[in-house]
Fold:
Amino acid sequence: MTRRILVTSALPYANGPIHIGHLVEYIQTDIWVRFQRMIGNRCVYICADDTHGTAIMIRAKKEGRSEEDLIADMSGQHQRDFADFHVEFDHYGSTNSDANRQQCHAFWSALRQAGLVTEKSIEQLYDPEAQTFLADRFVRGTCPVSGHKNQPGDNCQCGATYSPTDLIDPKSTLSGATPVIRTAVHLFVQLEKLRSFLTDWIDSSDALQKETANYLKGYFLAEGKELKDWDISRPGPYFGFEIPDSPGNYWYVWFDAPIGYVSSTKEWCDINGESFDDWWRSESTEIHHFIGKDITYFHTLFWPGMLHTAGLQLPTKVHIHGFLNVGGEKMSKSTGTLISAETYRKYAQPDYLRYFYATKLTPRVEDLDLGIDEFVDKVNSDLVGKVVNLASRVGKFAKNTGLSETYPDDGGLFENAASAGDAIAEAYEVGDYSRAMRLIMELADAANPFVEHAKPWEMKNDSDRQDELRDVVTVALNLFRQLAIYLAPVLPTLAEKCSALLGEPITSWDQSKQPLVGTSVEKFQRMMERLQPEDLQKMIDESKETVDAESAADDRPTFNDSDQPLKDEPMSEEITIDDFAKVDLRVARVLTAEHVPEANKLLKLTLGLGGDETRQVFAGIKAAYEPEKLIGRLVVMVANLQPRKMRFGLSEGMVCASGPGGEDVFLLAVDEGAQPGQRVH
RNA sequence: GGGCCGGUAGCUCAGUCGGUUAGAGCAGGGCACUCAUAAUGCCUUGGUCGCGGGUUCAAGUCCUGCCCGGCCUACCA
Structure:
């Protein structure tokens, strides 16, 4: 029976380019969609750009253009990136569309009618200069707990969490202005009222992986705990849709984003003459959302609640995947592992990444790791060494021989691979691509020895053995074709090349069951190049550079630091790392600090380097620091400085500080966590 | 602190309902081959299945305690 399946990936936010972490999801989804089509199901893949919110508004302003202009630009970039990676949508919409506005209205009136909307006044920081309310991340200030400076609005590096209104000396990152507290009315959805529905849904449907269902029931839906009201409005100015019955308020971006799934489907329906109800109101249609674990909460509580209230079908399955790590660590700008789709594309084939991700993806919510060496090995040994090489090693003869009229005896290889099709299909179906790839590679491993033992090279110059040669070619190319078919959801390009070589397009899974015989073969052309580790290194290097440039341009708040200090004390001549290494800087704790009666500028300090190791140091900081206030704090000292005999005693090092002297002396501080005795590198 | 997942060969992992001598790919070593993108084939080295208890005729597999790693979440399921 043909299934009717609607598939979505999460809507990428229009505030940045697609990177290889995003691609895990789109590739995962695209593979599933292609697989479904190959086995004959009706499958429509819908996505859109997520375009609203403060971040977009601010960025547009900074770039001096309209939001519409910005999001049109980003949408173009996103779609180009996806196309490069062979991620093919049936429709790619935008949350800033008429269709989405209409759907938002429909959802909203359903929520209103169901009595789920409530109003509350909340206090929030407001930037009087930028004339906008500030989300937590747009405020920085001094932590009220530890006193750390320049901390974000909701938490501090010391581990404390607080409300942005508690920050000491808060500053808006938008304008630098000091925010004021303003009260505004926000609209909330009372999710608690949907508790029993949600509990039932989680229990009765098998839409969620078991771990996710447990997590939701154990955490959000735990007994004695209320689901919090969901704040779904923002006061203007806000780039988004104004709420019809609450002028001056706009739907929060997370309200209209998932509705984009519905509105984008609606657009697709209108374009293609399809009935919307067939896709969102029909029990016989499956709805599959692919998302990352970070947005689990929105897609498993709010979204089902909204769909339920609006009378639309609930998701059949929410496929949740983990995050991408690179080299065992979180992707980061500084190490160059936050690689954009665009940069990747310059150095490696998209299909390689598709294959690598496929070998790593399972139905579990687990992070996956891209190890550079592993990536190179897998692509080169599996795809090039095993799969493509199978075609390559008989390809040259095939143009002359063509394929035999009947399929020759191959010792059961083709039959075996044909019957493996079901197990491979099952693995794709449940999202266990890792297993699917393993099964396919087993087939590839079995295929190559056939060519080896058949020794076609002994036949090629013997005119009497051309029929034999043709049989060998026929077997090898048919086994290769089976692999290409099974890999087609992952490697559409390879399937195309196989199709071109054999003159028959690969369109369906069942083609793997019947050998191709009696046809001619085109001239063989290389199908894949080996991946060079150096190219990946270049990719990483380039990612470092672009991000550095960006962060210099974008992230740096405007500081107007004077150039006087540098003028007063110009830069010294260059030194080598070895020169620097001679200076042994250590973290030290001030154990005692006292005035030296006879000295004008000096304090006498005892510095602890951990354990019993201490140093006596005379420091010229008397005018700037009270001895009592120094005791206990961590400083940085030059620990291997030659001791110097002073009038008041021996000074066994130096405390690091900046400033011209006198009262303007500033000791170097060390961040939380440093231990006395640690060397400063 | 709590919840979840994991710990099997140097690396990445498989191991179904507990059932013979624990497997694969890659990497390493040896040999062979030359059709192929220094590709491939054959052979081979390599494991106290995190640790300790328990259940059982039988435990990588089940139970339990502990250790380690990851993810999630923090006055806390």
Remarks:
- Residues 98 and 627 of chain A are 68 Å apart (CA to CA).
- The radius of gyration of chain A is 32 Å.
